[in-house]
Design brief:
CATH architecture of the largest domain: Alpha-Beta Barrel
Keywords: Glycosidase, Hydrolase
Family: Belongs to the glycosyl hydrolase 20 family.
CATH superfamily of the largest domain: Glycosidases
Strand content: 15-25%
Structural class: alpha/beta
Strand order of the largest sheet: 15-14-13-12-11-8-7-17-16
Shape: globular
Number of helices: 25
Number of domains: 4
EC number: 3.2.1.52
InterPro entries: Beta_hexosaminidase_sua/sub, GH, Glyco_hydro_20_cat, Hex-like_dom2, HEX_bac_N
Protein name: beta-N-acetylhexosaminidase
Number of strands: 33
CATH topology of the largest domain: TIM Barrel
Oligomer: single chain
């Protein structure tokens, strides 16, 4: 009947304008036409079957929480294409101006939504498409949309997955994972996966999962079914090569290790273990894919199979293990997924493995091009997914600025070069991250993976606030922006958690250095963020705001503590040795500070328990308890003073406030037993005699010593090995990056003997001079011939005597772990 109507007359009567509207929907639809007439969408919407059966209508209504009451003011007719000729003809008419075959264009997950005075219609090719159309309808209704509208929508990428690390920090409760599924599905995310090392309890090996933090196979099956109802797949995952220390640390599994962190591909017990565990997990996850991970295998060729690896080569050794895993996964009816980093380091691996593997290629920074992470797969015709990241690792708050650039750039380039999906990762290494601080990044990923043509700009931020919180004042995103400005300050650079784990008072009679130069600016930023949060007023997803407020309050407490401690220490230094009059004001300030930590600890514990299982909570609470105990101890000591004030060191107030930037983070190796300074630079093994990475080995007298990350908690005094013995030497390594070549003054503080090397050349130091602080070792001046770019600094320290190191520059010095930068480009932050 409709086919006989003149299409032009129909369109004129429908009053649909051919221009794109800025609709408050995330992800933004592919094609939008807005009419000029007003409609009464409101909240009184009901769903009506007009080309679907009653069972499908009930499923969709149940999962989207829409009514099926026929008396509702705004009924929306649902239809599957091909089942209702009238509905199909109407959609033909409404989509004619777009000059597209809508049935072909929308594919398996797309839809056409018509909101008009005469017609309220949602049509798709599948139930999944109807589900996603209803998510758009729900966002429009929640936003109070009141204009006629035609949306023709489909995903840019078939696989849109969020990957959450539940192995190296908090592990979510089953109830919270259900909430994640619901909210992600509302954003048209169709996959959820987890980073799993040891937190799923299998029936074949039930003893490696923590008792207070795990998902059982039954839990996985339940969540998998729940995800399916929301048209989402739970993608199976098990770390199957490196990062195996959590399991190998258990006595019953130690023999399976190639090293302490990597399972042995040649060990029969290890192979049986992997086959049993992966087989059981494949049976619990219904997704056709299974991710064996196998990334960052740092110890390849360094373990008990070294001789064998030397004979066949690292690439063959790695590829053979992946073939073993491939056979297990394929036997269970799955398609193998793996991280692509090792194959990119040894590209010949790509030519050794089956061609139907899906490579998960990851990079979390913002380089000018992502070609090095994409092109090797493209030129071989291999399937790949791009894996951007929401940068959370070892941070007090995710770097959402670099995440935005990374998600935007990586997905753009991946789409142009044929990626089959976007696998956005959230890594929780560090221990105390709450998922509710990650949602801004999740919305970015959902937006970009559904509609790659959009930009993550101010318009997105407005739609994000409207969709996520029902607000339109911009305060929430502006507050995030204020917090992210902390990443530019040397004290809070990259928003790393080292400032949180640093002691607030000296421990065990030692000295604490406090550099509070950036505190005033940091306080201003968090105070401005706090004021913006007061204006945010979300009407839904209130836990996001509560968590952002917690992040802001914690930074404020960190800054206030540094001011209080420095003020108390400076006052005490002036009064030392004098008779005590009254310590009441000082004790009162400590008590107030302590009460803030107690209250914030409870707040954090409550937030943790709302999302997570108990596992690793004790670790996450360590900084709170350390700080509360330190304040308690100092308060008790001050209360005992009734004569003159003793030396500051005797009561734990040996605090030095200094604006000098001391190097806190190093790679350390040793201690090496030797009568004299060891002759080797980085290792006696010439293959390893190069600037090290974390986890590399230095060889000395036939022994292997791992280069380990070390971040001092006292502000800059390096004293890792407390009693290494006489005639021993410790090596310390870092890098310094500068834009231009320069002769850079440097000071090395050390009370015994030490040697300093810059880019492999020994540098001669000047005479020892006092630092001006009796508690710090005397310093010797050096001039470092720094090249433009990255420079390698090595210290050899006798008997591991405490040392300090700093540069003589007025330019800002920042660091990302052991990598230091002079006058860093604030538009280019490091990613993990």
């Amino acid at each position: 009947m409709i086919r006989g109507i003149n299409i032009l007359i129909l369109l004129l009567s429908l009053n649909i304008e051919l221009f794109a509207a800025d609709v408050p929907v995330v992800p933004y639809p592919q094609q939008v036409q807005q009419g000029t007439a007003t409609i009464k969408l409101g909240k009184s919407i009901s769903l009506k079957a007009d080309g679907i059966d009653g069972a499908m209508l009930k499923r969709l209504a149940d999962v989207t929480k829409f009514s099926t009451n026929e008396r509702a003011a705004f009924p929306v007719n649902l239809s599957i294409s091909g089942r209702n000729k009238m509905a199909d003809a109407l959609i033909d008419a409404y989509t004619t101006p777009l000059k597209t075959d809508w049935k072909t264009r929308i594919g398996k997950e797309g839809y056409v939504l018509v909101l008009h005075k005469k017609d309220q219609l949602l049509v798709a090719n599948t139930e999944a498409g109807l589900f996603y159309g209803l998510q758009t309808l729900k966002q429009l209704a929640d936003a109070g949309w009141n204009k006629e509208l035609v949306i023709t929508d489909w995903p840019s990428l078939p696989h849109r997955v969020i990957f959450d690390d539940i192995s190296r920090g908090p592990i979510s409760k089953v109830a919270y994972i259900r909430q994640q599924i619901e909210r992600m599905a509302s954003l048209k995310v169709n996959g959820l996966s987890f980073y799993i090392e040891h937190v799923i309890q299998t029936r074949s090996y039930p003893d490696f999962a923590p008792a207070d933090g795990k998902l059982t196979i039954a839990d996985v099956r339940e969540l998998d079914a729940y995800a399916a109802r929301h048209h989402m797949q739970l993608v199976g995952s098990f770390q199957s090569f490196g990062h195996f220390n959590n399991i190998l640390s258990l006595p019953q599994y130690q023999s399976m290790g190639e090293t302490s962190t990597m399972i042995s591909p040649l060990d029969p017990k290890a192979k049986r273990f992997l086959e049993s565990v992966i087989t059981e997990m494949c049976g619990a996850f219904s997704s056709p894919y299974f991710n064996v991970n196998c990334d960052e295998t740092f110890d390849l060729g360094k373990g008990k199979s070294k001789n064998y690896v030397d004979s066949v080569g690292v690439a063959r050794f790695y590829a053979d293990h992946l073939k073993f895993l491939y056979d297990i996964v394929k036997k269970n009816g799955k398609k193998l997924m793996m991280w692509g980093d090792i194959a990119l380091q040894h590209e010949e691996i790509l030519d050794m493995l089956p061609k139907d593997i899906v490579y998960m290629t990851w990079e979390y920074g913002n380089p000018p091009s992502y070609s090095k992470w994409i092109d090797p797969f493209v030129k071989r015709g291999l399937q790949f997914m791009v894996c951007p990241g929401i940068l959370n690792t070892n941070r007090l708050f995710p770097d959402l600025a670099i995440a935005k650039a990374n998600i935007n750039g990586f997905i753009n380039e991946g789409y142009k070069k044929g990626t089959i999906g976007a696998y956005t990762t959230i890594w929780d290494e560090g221990g105390d991250q709450l998922f509710s601080e990650d949602w801004y990044g999740v919305y970015m990923a959902a937006e970009k993976s559904w509609n790659v043509t959009t930009d993550l700009n101010d318009a997105f931020d407005k739609r994000y606030e409207k969709a996520a919180y029902g607000t339109a004042n911009g305060a929430y995103v502006k507050a995030i922006g204020k917090l992210l400005a902390l990443r530019d300050l040397p004290l809070t650079y990259n928003m790393t958690h080292q400032i949180w784990w640093q002691h607030i008072l000296p421990q065990n009679g030692e000295t604490l250095i406090l550099n509070n130069k950036d505190v005033p600016e940091g306080l201003q930023l968090v105070n401005e963020a706090a004021q913006l949060l007061k204006l945010a007023n979300p009407v839904k997803h209130l836990s996001d705001l509560a968590t952002l407020k917690y992040i802001t309050d914690r930074y404020k407490l960190i800054f206030d503590t540094r001011i209080e401690v420095a003020g108390l220490a400076n006052w005490y230094a002036l009064q030392e040795g004098k008779p005590v009059s009254s310590l009441g004001p000082q004790i009162s300030s400590l008590q107030k500070l302590k009460s803030r930590y107690v209250a914030m600890e409870k707040d954090f514990r409550d937030k943790w328990n709302s999302e997570n299982q108990p596992y690793t909570l004790d670790y996450a609470l360590t900084p709170y308890q350390t700080r509360i105990n330190a304040l308690n101890d100092l308060e008790k000591k001050l209360k005992t003073l009734n004569t003159s004030l003793p030396a500051a060191a005797t009561i734990g107030l040996n605090v030095i406030e200094s604006d000098r930037y001391y190097f806190n983070f190093w790679l350390l190796a040793g201690p090496f037993k030797s009568d004299t300074f060891p002759a080797f630079l980085y290792s006696e093994d010439q293959q390893a005699n190069h600037p090290p990475k974390p986890g590399d080995f230095a060889q000395h007298n036939g022994q292997q010593f791992r280069w380990m990350k070390y971040n001092t908690d006292n502000g800059g005094i390096i004293n890792k090995f407390k009693d290494p013995g006489s005639d021993t030497y410790v090596y310390a390594f870092c890098t310094i990056t500068t834009q231009t070549a320069t002769q850079m003054p440097a000071w090395l503080g050390n009370d015994t003997a030490a040697e300093l090397f810059c880019n492999g050349t020994k540098i001669t130091g000047g005479a020892f001079t006092s630092t001006g602080y009796a508690a710090l070792p005397k310093e010797r001046s050096y001039h470092l011939p720094l090249n433009a770019g990255t420079n390698y600094i090595l210290l050899k320290v006798k008997n591991n005597a405490p040392f300090t190191f700093r540069l003589g520059t007025t330019e800002s010095v920042t660091n990302h772990k052991h990598k230091y930068t002079i006058n860093a480009d604030q538009d280019s932050h490091e990613a993990d």
